[in-house]
């Protein structure tokens, strides 16, 4: 085997080891770094536990299984509940009149260039507090050399337009958008469903007071648990809609450098200086990633030494075996 081929094979092997090492390092970093999760939602509640616990205790005391209670639902409730609940279904959704106040969820977004990011965030937060609002979140950091901040506030819906104008007066607006969602129809529909379920609950309570058998009591309580769970879910959703309509949301992105701000401007104006800044930031990010990889490579030096030692031993053994074979042939 020529010397050039040996060098090529050694380089290929080294490249392979480095590639494997990078894969191992990235896998290790993924395993070590915690996964950040954020949960945004609204808790609408579930069925109360008191009735469920009472039903369970009755079932244990009488030796009834869940299957027995389930069959009792169809037997007892079908005989007694159906005639009394029939009138409940006649409850219909109240029609929306022209005088009904509309429930509109308003959301505004602004991107602005300001002189001082921190000072502007403070001024916006102070304004929100004066309007009986509050700050949902506030973040300040740097993109390259330019400070950048994001602020989300909630203020009363009646002050939404005034709030937008107040925020706009604190800097140069790069882009802005306002969206509104009418949830009046959904709210009225939920209210009708709630009325039906509350009427059904009253009928079940009346039946429960008349029940004498344990199986009948368990059957009605099981139905009550389901109805109350649905009532709490509807009440939670309605509360969320009321709060969303009463308190409008304004999101503000701030920076001293307009090139780092998100924009809804679709114009195709060439901005060479902005491109230079973007390219410089990209170069810095690439440099950071290379340095990070180098740090991990250095940390994993012991592994490279072990791998290199194993390869060296294998090569030495193979050479000795080949040398002995040639000696015997001679």
From TrEMBL:
Keywords: Membrane, Transmembrane, Transmembrane helix
Residue ranges occupied by any DUF4349 domain in the UniProt entry: 102-315
Transmembrane segments: 294-318
InterPro entries: DUF4349
Protein name: DUF4349 domain-containing protein
Organism: Candidatus Magasanikbacteria bacterium RIFOXYD2_FULL_41_14
